[in-house]
C-alpha cells in the first residue's frame, strides 16, 4: 500500500490536470492537501468528511476511496 505522501502526489497530479475552477480540481486539491498533512489514511478520511461544500466533499471522498484502493 502507498503511504500518504505517495497518495498526495497522485491526487495533486489529478488536480493539476483538472480544469481551473472545476469541482474536480477543488476535490483533488483537497485530497492532496489532506493526505500530505495527516499521519495516516484513517485520519485523512475523517478530515475529508468535514469538507464543504457537499459537491466537493462527495467528489473528494470518491477520489480518496479510488486512490486508497489501488
Describe this structure in words.
The chain has 70 residues and is mainly α. The chain has one domain (4-69). The protein has helices at residues 4-17, 23-37, 41-48, 54-69. The longest helix is centred in the last third of the chain and has 16 residues, at 54-69. The mean pLDDT is 96.
Q: How far from one another are the termini?
A: 8 Å
**Total number of distinct structural domains:** 1
**Number of E-type strands:** 0
Strand content range: under 5%
Attribute tags:
4 helices, globular
Write a concise synopsis of the structure shown.
It contains 4 helices and no strands. With 70 residues, the chain is an all-alpha fold. The mean pLDDT is 96.
Task: Chart the SSEs and their pairings.
Layout: H1 4-17, H2 23-37, H3 41-48, H4 54-69
Amino acid at each position: 500500500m502507498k503511504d500518504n505522501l505517495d497518495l498526495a502526489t497522485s491526487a495533486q497530479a489529478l488536480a493539476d490536470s483538472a480544469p481551473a475552477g472545476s469541482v474536480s480540481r477543488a476535490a483533488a486539491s483537497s485530497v492532496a492537501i489532506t493526505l500530505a498533512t495527516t499521519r495516516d489514511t484513517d485520519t485523512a478520511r475523517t478530515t475529508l468528511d468535514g469538507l464543504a461544500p457537499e459537491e466537493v466533499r462527495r467528489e473528494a471522498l470518491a477520489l480518496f476511496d479510488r486512490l486508497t484502493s489501488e
